[in-house]
Amino acid sequence: MFKRKGNLVLLVLLLLMAGIYAFIYLGDQKKGERNFRSTLVDINTEKVTKIWIKGAEKEKPLIVEKSGDQWMVELENGEKVAALEETVNRTLEEIASIKPSRLASKNPSKWPEFKVDDEGTKVEIYEGSKKALDIIIGRFEIDPASMQQTQQRMGQQQNPKFTSFVRLSGEDDVFVVKGFYEGLAGQNAATYRDKALFKGNKEKIKKITYNYPADSSMVLELKTDAWYVNDEKADSGKVVSYLNGLAFMKGGDFVDKPASS
Questions:
Q1: CA angle 36, 41, 46 (to 5 degrees)
Q2: Strand, helix or coil at 162?
Q3: How far apart are the first and last CA of the chain?
Q4: What are phi and psi of 181, to 5 degrees?
Q5: CA 115 to CA 108: how far, in whole Å?
Q6: Do residues 22 and 30 make contact, with C-beta atoms less than 8 angstroms apart?
Q7: What is the pTM of this model?
């Protein structure tokens, strides 16, 4: 009888301890959930009408805005020119991928350390007149372990792993996110413009005429199964290499105010 009572008391104590543990554990979990924001970026890429990016080193922000069905990017002189939709979509996808992995700090005095103050890159996203996102992207770090793996696997495709620090404007919390977002600071109007000088199917190119000053000219032409420069047979390998580059010729940048000369 005493043995049964002893077992019963032991069982009650075990249940009581389990209850206390569950209370503390669940309480800590809920507390962690309250202190840790699971979502930083909540934008509908289909509804976005404006992207505003201001790097710490830039005097003016980069503004990409939708006008009707066409995206436009603002130049330094205030003029607006067409922007490539695919580039805009890539930027929006990059921003939408910002997800917190942990909380770095809740102390505003730490902002300069993480460069989420005036030294950070400020990004604003608008859906019509509504500001859907206002975030500051700070410094980044490279995972040393991933760098070591990259060096050990030089013959394989291996990219180092990055982490970045971000903060929502108007809030104290600084978050760690996986990925490299510093590239947003380096964007300019040219990033969004179409740099293509020529787009063509190299298989359909049969003749190219070159006109130079002083009445000089040259003709590269496919005759039957061979290429000729004027009347001399050309090196087929060099012609193929040249046409590969010509089919997707791009410029490097734009001169919006060329000199009169």
A1: 155
A2: strand
A3: 111
A4: -120, 5
A5: 11
A6: no
A7: 0.71
Handedness of CA 43, 45, 46, 51 (dihedral sign): positive
Q: Please, how many CA atoms are within 13 Å of residue 222, restricted to the half-sphere of its CB?
A: 12
Lookup result for tokens 């607006």: 80
* Look-up of token digits 């410094």: 139
**Token pair in block for residue 18:** 């389990």
Provide block-wise average pLDDT over 10 residues at a time, the chain (261 residues). 57 65 51 63 95 93 95 93 95 95 94 96 96 96 67 59 94 94 91 87 88 82 90 90 86 74 59
Residue 171 near residue 207 (C-beta atoms within 8 A): no
- Whether residue 124 contacts residue 131, with contact meaning beta carbons closer than 8 Å, is answered with yes
Helix (H, G, I), strand (E, B) or coil at 27: helix
Evaluate whether 198 touches 187 at the Cβ level (below 8 Å).
no
Please count the other Cβ atoms lying within 10 Å of the Cβ belonging to residue 247.
15
Structure confidence by residue, pLDDT tens digits, 106-142:
999 999 999 999 999 999 999 999 999 999 999 999 8
